[in-house]
């Protein structure tokens, strides 16, 4: 990805999260409109990873609803010392590493109960 030289300014434009159609993982993105098209640009990824959508991709109202559910406000990362402050019922996005550590995936879960 081309960097304008000011990473803080560039990252501020990435203000929403999107569940990728490629792997169903959540990523920080920015949205660009052009004509009847929408481009989803992933923060820190080359343009080759952009996902593009046009109005013709949404033939049924259900398709629009499903697409809208792929967006959410940005997640806030909890630091180790804040974990005890997370309340039951809170929705969190957690990373899970594979047994060999070669792959890390993110999942969204609801905190059902906390260990004492």
Automatic annotation (TrEMBL):
GO terms for molecular function: chromatin binding. Residues 14-99 form the SAWADEE domain. Pfam families: SAWADEE (PF16719). This is SAWADEE domain-containing protein.
């Amino acid at each position: 990805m081309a960097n304008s030289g000011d990473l803080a300014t560039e990252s501020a434009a990435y203000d929403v999260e999107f569940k990728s159609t490629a792997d169903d993982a959540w990523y920080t993105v920015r949205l660009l409109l052009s004509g009847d098209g929408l481009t989803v640009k992933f923060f820190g990824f080359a343009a080759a990873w952009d996902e593009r959508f046009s109005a013709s991709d949404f033939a049924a109202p259900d398709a629009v609803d499903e697409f809208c559910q792929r967006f959410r406000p940005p997640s806030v990362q909890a630091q180790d010392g804040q974990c005890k402050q997370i309340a039951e019922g809170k929705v969190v996005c957690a990373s899970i590493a594979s047994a060999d550590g070669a792959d890390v995936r993110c999942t969204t879960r609801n905190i059902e109960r906390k260990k004492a």
